[in-house]
Amino acid sequence: MRKYLAIIAAAMLLGTAAEAQPQREKIIIDTDIGDDIDDAFAVALALSSPELDVLGFSAAFGDTTTRAKMLDRMLGELGHGDIPVAMGAPVDVNRNAFTQRRYAEGGTFARASHPDSVDFVLAQAHKYPGQVTLVAIGPLPNVGAMIDKDPAGFRLLKRVVIMGGSIRTMEDPYGVAPPIAPHPEWNIKNDIAGAKKLFASGVPLYVMPLDSTANLKLHEVARTAIYSHGSMMTNILAGLYYEWSAYTRAATPTLYDPMTLASMLEPSLCPTTPMHIIVDDAGNTKETPGTPNANVCLHSDDDAFLHFYVKRVTRH
Which of 207, 256, 262, 306 sees the fewest Cβ atoms within 10 Å? Predict the structure, then answer.
């Protein structure tokens, strides 16, 4: 009897431990990786975060073929070759902005084929209704196509988190540069139709606009901390940074895109405000009266974000 009681007690303890384990957030990242450097830093944050269950990546906008190759190589070199890489329809736009092409076209991990992004994301939404977060950190042609193809299936997503938009006038923290008025932001203006569909979709939407991301400068101290760490992850980031820097003649990247993930992992870094946002025909994201359709982060803690980011990607 004592033996059976011990077995039951052990089973109860295991069940309690399993219940105590937090549920991992299922995510898919739709990205225009390879142009600006911040997409690669977002991929690194996702792969460094055990709270996230990355169901797949999706290449969006422009040269999606090379973007998919870049994701293939990063995932292969980091031991995550089992994570699917989907590909949106390639379009012959913006090809001259691919700053990390040498890395993307090198290596030995390019896959023979990739599933269609629209079909892949919708399939995951149907498979895990109410559980999948779509993180969109590029222009939105894939997202618009998902809504067109299966609006009810798209609404099975738990939420969509985007980097995009410009909501209010931004003041220079040092009072030197003139204020920057709201204007059409890159990810929105490169697929205005897709953005309009997303803001009208009814899916819970979390928005990280320029208001809260343009201040996220990866300064030299933080760069040194990351690049000197010496892991495969940080070595890849260092190499991609130097490709980007040589191409753009810039030294300090802005980590716009990683805030989408950081805000999920540590909401205090970028608290949101419910707002009603419309996208006009020029690609402006305008705050207007009405029932909120988006949760918007207007201010972020840039120092806390950098500390969080550096610690997270150098944890191993």
Answer: 306
